[in-house]
Amino acid sequence: MTEVKNPEQKQAYLTAINALAQTQAPEWVAELRRKGAVHFAELPFPDRRQEEWRFTNVAPILKMPFAPVAASAPSIGNDDVAPFLYHEAAWAELVFVDGRYNAALSRTVSLPKGMYAGSLAEAIRDEHPVAKKHLGHYAGNGVSTVFTALNTALFQDGAFVYAPKGVALEAPVHLVFVATSAAAGKTANPRNLIVLDESAELKLIESYASTVNDAAYFANSVTETSIGENAALYRVKFVDEAPNAFHLATARVRQARNSRYTSYVFTAGGRIVRNEDKALLDGEGADCSLNGLYMTDGSMLADNATGIDHAKPHCTSWIGYKGILADASAGVFSGGIRVQRGAQKTSSQQLNRNLLLSDKATVDTKPLLEIFADDVKCTHGATIGQPPKELVYYFQTRGMSPETARGILTYGFADEIVAQLTIEPVRARLDRLVFDKYSPK
Questions:
Q1: What's phi and psi for 104, nearest 5 deg?
Q2: On the CB side of 247, how many CA atoms lie within 13 Å of its CA?
Q3: How far is the C-alpha of 218 from the C-alpha of 151, rounded, in Å?
Q4: Which of 18-27, 95-104, 287-296 is predicted with the least confidence, judged by mean pLDDT?
Q5: Less crowded by CB within 10 Å, the N or C end of the chain?
Q6: Which residues pair with 434 in a beta bridge?
Q7: 33: buried, middle or exposed (CB in 10 Å: 19+, 13-18, 0-12)?
Q8: What per-residue confidence (pLDDT) applies to 7?
Q9: Neighbours of 20 (CB within 10 A)
């Protein structure tokens, strides 16, 4: 094994990895974890000399001796998780406490024949053939970055959602990841696997929240997704971690011919939040749309690393992210579009727009195009500014205060993303959150 990089920071993790290696697991899972452990030992933690991490300093994470959250009885009940649920009768709402599935707090519904929505750990124990076929195949073999490798080495549970051929589930599946006081000073490594077979359709909601406000913890999640031919996945992710928490999430998607992937990522809470949402368009006619809204304040940092790799011809894609930054907070956006040789007739657009509500707020944005084909249509752009003074003045002439005018303009800026949501209860909840956050007090 190569010499360990960052040995002091890694020691607690390496101890946990060695302990987990002694537990029983199917050989295919044990092998996946071994690969993750080897790469975690070899790879250094990122620093700002690396281009992808140039504006995101992970030093605050590494200063704390995080160890994995121990498996223990949950310290919360139904009343604690109720605010994070939607309580829609037709929805399956699966609750994961500190990274582990909790059946008592979850609400399951009758699913179509062959469909699975539940614990990944249970699927592994049952040797579910779909989980065995797909787990570890889309996130760079599970070891593409040091944090992905850490998750691969230490994951024990997470969500597994499988929609068989032709199944179109109308009601969404809601995955709720809740951090508790037991997670303070520790790391949760949930591993999620989403698989849609040919012509399947699924709506998926992910919520990340906390029952404690003053705890520092580390949520290090990896989600792998396979979307089959003519299948469609509609995904909404909402991050509202505790103010001192760290949330690093890697999402990797592979799309087959004529598939559709639509993603919305909303970030509202956490000390450092990094969402990686990247897709491989691996079949002709695939369509991918990555959308997001990050709302930061205090000293929060929100980093959105998006990417779409056009590997086959006749595919379309869109990346559209907005940021609203207040106080001394910071935002980072990177949008990578790659068009491989032979991926002719590609059509791709990306746009990042940012609204600064404070002179101390900062944002770094980097739309990027890499084009290796000659018959394509690709555009990119970025804007950074404050609420337009002329519009603020216009509202003032109608009797509004400057604060009310800026609040209306900020709400309207955010609502361009929120209003696109087609799942009404989710749209209504986020609309209320944005209104309450930016309306004058």
A1: -65, -30
A2: 35
A3: 12
A4: 18-27
A5: C
A6: none
A7: buried
A8: 65
A9: 17
Q: Which carries the bigger pLDDT value, residue 257 or residue 405?
A: 257
Spatial neighbors of 328 by CB under 8 A, at least 6 apart, are 298, 299, 358, 360, 361
Residue the block writes with tokens 């996946």:
32
Strands, DSSP E only, in 21-145?
67-68, 92-97, 100-101, 116-119
Give me the pLDDT at residue 142, please: 45
pLDDT of res. 430: 97
The position carrying tokens 């011809």 is 313
The mean pLDDT value for 324-331 works out to 98
Q: What is the mean pLDDT of residues 114-139?
A: 96
Asked whether the beta carbons of 264 and 291 are under 8 A apart, the reply is yes
Average pLDDT value for residue range 23-43: 91
| Beta strand extents in 299-345 (DSSP E only) | 301-310, 316-325, 330-339
The mean predicted confidence, pLDDT, of the chain is 93
C-alpha closest to that of 169 among 197, 200, 198: 200
Pairing of strands 159-163, 116-119: antiparallel
- Terminal-to-terminal C-alpha distance of the chain: 58
CA separation for the pair 351, 255 (Å, rounded): 22
Closest CA to 411 of 436, 389, 390, 393: 436
pLDDT at 2: 43
Pairing status of strand 246-255 against strand 218-227: parallel
Residue 140 Ramachandran class (φ > 0 left, ψ -120 to 50 alpha, else beta): left
Q: What is the mean pLDDT of residues 345-372?
A: 96
Contacts of 181 (CB under 8 A, 6+ apart): 75, 211, 212, 215
Element at 246 (helix H, strand E):
strand 246-255
Q: Is the CB of residue 289 less than 8 Å from the CB of residue 317?
A: yes
Question: Which amino acid, 185?
Answer: G
227-243 pLDDT, tens digit each: 999 999 999 999 999 99
Compare 86 and 22 and report the one with higher pLDDT.
Answer: 86
Nearest CA to 174 among 248, 123, 250, 238?
238
Average pLDDT over residues 359-378: 95
Q: Provide the residue type at 363 as one letter.
A: V
101-106 contacts at long range (C-beta below 8 A, 24 or more positions apart): 101/157, 101/158, 101/159, 102/74, 104/74, 105/74, 105/76, 105/77, 105/78, 105/81
